[in-house]
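Q: Structure tokens for this one, please.
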Amino acid sequence: MPVALMSEPEKAPRLLSDEQLAEIFREDVRPGLDRLSSQTSPHMVLLGGPQGSRKTMLRTVVAEQLGLTDALLYDGDDHFALHPHYDALALEHGVLEAARLCGPDVDVIRDAILTEVLTRRLNVMFIGPYTAQEYTLGRVAAFRAEGYSTELAYTALHPALTHVGVMDRHRRALSLAFNVAGHSTC
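A: Here is the predicted structure, written as tokens:
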């Protein structure tokens, strides 16, 4: 019988209850959403680019250039910080395993955010790699179907610089993990 060389990791069970997730949304997410205004003609922007291409750094500049001064900046990586167990799991198991373990809960929070965005017709900028064409086009089509105007901004970077950026981010994450755990970074 052939053995699969690569397989999807098993999806972890949720760590938090519906009530705990509702509290996180109410306490940590809703206040930021409540500062945003509903729009008659809402806009959705996808800011894409390879890892290490400074999307996070550029997101406010791109939003400003597109006239989105009142927009939710939706970076999926940021949502893991909302999970009360993520930091401890990252220290114990590494960030990839922590993301896998917290992922089902974070997906519930993300779904609640998207529901609120669409219900209130808020401007939104999604920040991510957006390398999967089917997923990217699906997201654009879904927002267009809801009456949003859509735009795509993409960062480009020489592959060598992209790898340096990824390595630098990894080095900083390790340094932070050692500092948090009380270990020397030397």
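A few notes: The longest strand covers residues 43-48. The mean pLDDT is 85.
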